[in-house]
Write a structure and sequence with these properties.
This protein has nine helices and three strands; from the N terminus they run αααββααααβαα. With 209 residues, the protein is mainly alpha-helical. The protein has a three-stranded antiparallel sheet with strand order 2-1-3. Helix 3 runs antiparallel to helix 7, helix 4 runs antiparallel to helix 5 and helix 5 crosses helix 6.
């Protein structure tokens, strides 16, 4: 539950977070937490974060703890995103949050119990964006997932290089990441908007609201 603590502190009901986590783990069991999965997860976070302008990154790393492989990605100057004051940066961080989960799937390491905290955080972000700026939460969520998958596909060579590096070495440092950096934030935020709108319109035509 510690990974969900920031979300709970922002008002997400603790009992609901616990319930969602328990139900998923009860149904699917623990994720394997292999090194390959952790490498794909961190590569996904980086390639999406970099594309959306969160670079530079100080490092990415994978490490073993209590028999499980975990990871970490550290921006040089992390900035909190306020949904009221800077909605675009808030949206960027929402997409980056789910990128680890999508990265695992893109690399063939999908597991339904992976990244529960990050998936809940994206759902909460989409609910907040819907309430303040319009659009159906489920359309925003689906659009976010597709956008992130498309970013990883568009930068599959960089994703592959970073993922394979972390499978061999425990850390990749800023000079290597800077050399691969290719930000293109506005294009992808617009893509999220268009995808979400299209999904919402199709839902209405099919009678889902």
């Amino acid at each position: 539950m510690s990974a969900l603590q920031p979300l709970i502190e922002q008002g997400f009901p603790a009992h609901l977070a616990e319930q969602i986590t328990a139900e998923i783990l009860d149904q699917y069991g623990e994720e394997p937490c292999t090194r390959e999965q952790a490498a794909a997860h961190e590569a996904g976070h980086w390639v999406v974060g970099d594309t959306l302008g969160l670079a530079p990154y100080r490092w990415l790393r994978v490490f073993r703890e209590r028999g499980k492989w975990l990871g970490e990605n550290i921006e040089v100057s992390p900035v909190s995103a306020n949904i009221f004051e800077d909605p675009d940066r808030y949206r960027v961080t929402a997409l980056q949050v789910i990128a680890g989960f999508i990265g695992e799937a893109a690399a063939g390491h999908f597991h339904p119990s992976s990244s529960i905290d990050e998936r809940i955080r994206l759902e909460a972000s989409c609910a907040g964006l819907s309430q303040l700026y319009g659009g159906r939460p489920e359309a925003l969520l689906a659009g976010a997932m597709v956008t992130v998958a498309e970013i990883i596909q568009a930068r599959q060579d960089d994703f592959y290089l970073v993922r394979r590096h972390l499978e061999r070495e425990r850390r990749i440092l800023r000079p290597r990441l800077d050399a691969l950096s290719r930000p293109n934030r506005d294009t992808w935020l617009l893509r999220w908007d268009r995808l979400s709108h299209g999904i919402e319109q199709r839902g209405r035509r099919l009678g889902h609201g």
